[in-house]
Structures are given as C-alpha cells and as structure tokens.
Amino acid sequence: MAAKRPARAAAAIDQVPWSAIRPAPVVLVTGPETFLAERAITSLRDLLLAEDPALEVHDLEADQYAPGLLATLASPSLFGEPRLLRVVQVEKCTDAFITETLSYLQAPADDVTLVLRHGGGVRGKKLLDAIRGGTGGGIEVQCDELKKETDRIDFVQAEFRAARRKISPSAVRTLVAAFADDLAELAAACRQLLADDDQEITDRTVDRYYGGRVETNAFKVADIALAGRSGPAVVQLRHALATGEAPVPIVAAFASKIRTMAKVSSFRGSSGQAASALGLAPWQVQRAQRDVQGWSEAGLANAILSIAAADTAVKGGSRDAHYALEVMVRVIARHGEGT
After folding, report:
1. Which fold has domain 146-215?
2. 79-105 pLDDT tens trace
3. Which residues contact 324 (CB under 8 A, 6 or more apart)?
4. Sheet containing 14-17, strands listed edge to edge, beginning at the edge strand earlier in sequence
5. CB-based contact 197:162 (threshold 8 Å)
C-alpha cells in the first residue's frame, strides 16, 4: 500500500481567498485556477494604483529568470516610487530565482510588493515553505478551482452583487449551467449582461443572449428527461452531441441530478434541515424534492444502474456510446421503470 502523503503544516501567514487579496510585502498566489489568479493580481494592482498613481509595475518569468534581476528591480528608485513586481511561472522557476528570492525574503524592500504566482507542483517548495512560515511578512492567496455548482453560483451572485445589480436565482442557475466548464467565459457572460441590460436579469434575459448554448447543455438534457419528456430529451441529447457536447459531461450531469435526488428522498426533515445536513444549497434541495416526486426506490436504483452503464460505455466500454446515452435518457425519463 502506498505511503500516505504527509499533511502540509499549517501556515503561519494569513491565507485568504482570491476576492480578499490585499497589499503585503510578499503575496503568494497559489492554486490551479488561472482566471481567478489573474483576477486577484489585477485587483491588487488596482488597489496599489489607487494608493499611489506613480506605481511602477514590472513583470518577470521565473522560468526565464536572469540572476540579479530581482535585486535590481527591488532596489530603491531615484524618486521613491512604489513598485509592484509580478512573477509568473514560479512552479517552473530556476535555481537562481529560488536562491535570490529566499535571500530577498530576509529583508523585503520598502515600497515593494512582490507577487509570486505558483500554479502547483513541488518545484519551489523550499521557497513556498519559507513564505508560509512567515519569512518576508507575506500572505497567501488561494485560487482553487470552482468545481462545485454551488461555488460557481456564489461566483455569479458575487459578480452581480459587486455591480449592485439584481439577477433572479433561476437566471443564475441557467447561466451557470450554460458555462459549466469555463470560469472565464462565465465571468465574461456576467460582464456582458451587466453592460447590455440595465434591468433585473431573468431567465428570459439569459435565454436571449445564450439560449443556443443553454439548450445544448448537458444539464438541459437532464432537466428535460427528469420532466418525463422522453422523446424531446432524446432529441435534445442528439442535438447536444451534434453540436459538440462531450458524452462524459452529459453522464456526469445526470449522475449529479440523480445523486442529489437520492440523498433528498431518503432524508426526513425540512428542506432547510436537509440543506444543512447534506451540504446543499436550499434551492438544490427544493429542486431535487420536486424532481423526485413520483419516483420509487426501485426506480432510483434502476436510474443509478443505467447511469453506471452509460458511464462505462462513454469511457471506452462500448462501441456505441451514443446508444448507451439514449438508453439512460429513456430510463430516467420514465422514472427508472424501463427502457
């Protein structure tokens, strides 16, 4: 049996989400979500510019680092302008960069903000451990992927809240479903809606802009099937596949829906209690309670089996993965009662 990976020691510095980035002598930006990291670093630049418009900004690539460059850029300037040093590719950094940055951390320069973007991996671990241990007086900004639907919903709501605009809960869900695989596109869609429409954003608004994309989305297929509309669900499935929707996310969408329904169906208590106990948003519980009406335990079991069979098929277990998907859709549209 493989040895367990040792747990990372608790950091001695503040660890904050991307949206809470703030100035510090050293700002370590970690995590795999590039879009959030770029958004955080841009926000930091704007904060520093607001403090002093004379801010000098310098960009470095740690994998192409030239020895002595950090010391040169961080040395006192003639007129004392504050400086922002943005370093990317720290996960691929040179040995010289590690050595010189470790030395710099012992006495960070006044009026310099050093931002280190590390996308993941073990390269530069000694440097990261030093920063997390408190050397340099820094903070860590964590940019984790927004894998859960609830995280992406929170993201959209925060975008509209920051703009002091209203968007209906159902419009948020529709928008998230349409851009489930690309956070940058989801953010761009939010910006477009905010720029082009000054009213409350509703389902109709989202459909006007992104209806074509929503209609071919995996969750759209699942919603039609769960509504008991077998024929339209199969048609929508074929259209989704024809327009580029991959089979694996379609199965994942159905699995997510049915899994939530199964959890909710076996819970005894109010929707609020269910949301708290199951780690779901209240609207997810309410939606699942509505979807599971008319289903039997045997039906849910059959639906889970059909999803498992489809999952095997789309991952290479069948020569006709599309047929397996259609079988799954028909089973679920009939509440698990047959094909």
Report:
1. Helicase, Ruva Protein; domain 3 (1.10.8)
2. 778 999 999 999 999 999 999 999 999
3. 309, 310, 312, 313, 314, 318
4. 14-17, 139-142, 26-30, 112-118, 83-88, 56-61
5. no
**CATH assignment of 14-142, among 3.30.430.20, 3.40.50.1360, 3.40.50.300, 3.40.50.1580:** 3.40.50.300
Per-residue confidence at 216, pLDDT binned at 50, 70, 90?
A: low
Neighbours of 270 (CB within 10 A): 10
Cβ pair 41, 59 in contact under 8 A: no
Cα–Cα distance between 159 and 150 in angstroms, integer? Answer: 14
Q: Is pLDDT above 80 for 15?
A: yes
Q: How far apart are CA 195 and CA 218, in angstroms?
A: 28
Return the structure tokens found at 128: 């990261």
Q: What is the pLDDT of residue 1?
A: 36
State the DSSP H helix or E strand holding residue 183, giving kind and residue range, or none if neither. helix 183-196
List the domain boundaries for the chain: 14-142, 146-215, 216-339
For residues 33-57, average pLDDT: 93
**65: amino acid identity, one letter:** Y
170/336 Cα distance (integer angstroms):
27
With 50 as the cut, is the pLDDT of residue 2 above it?
no
State the pTM of this model: 0.62
The token duo for 72 is 């040169």
**Which CATH number does 216-339 carry?**
1.20.272.10
Least confident segment among 8-12, 23-27, 157-161:
8-12
Nearest to 253 by CA among 271, 236, 276: 236
pLDDT, residue 90, reads: 96
pLDDT-derived band of residue 8, with 50, 70 and 90 as boundaries?
Answer: low
Which string of DSSP letters, residue by residue, matches 20-79?
Answer: G----SEEEEESS-HHHHHHHHHHHHHHHHHH-TT-EEEEEEGGGPPTTHHHHHHSPPTT
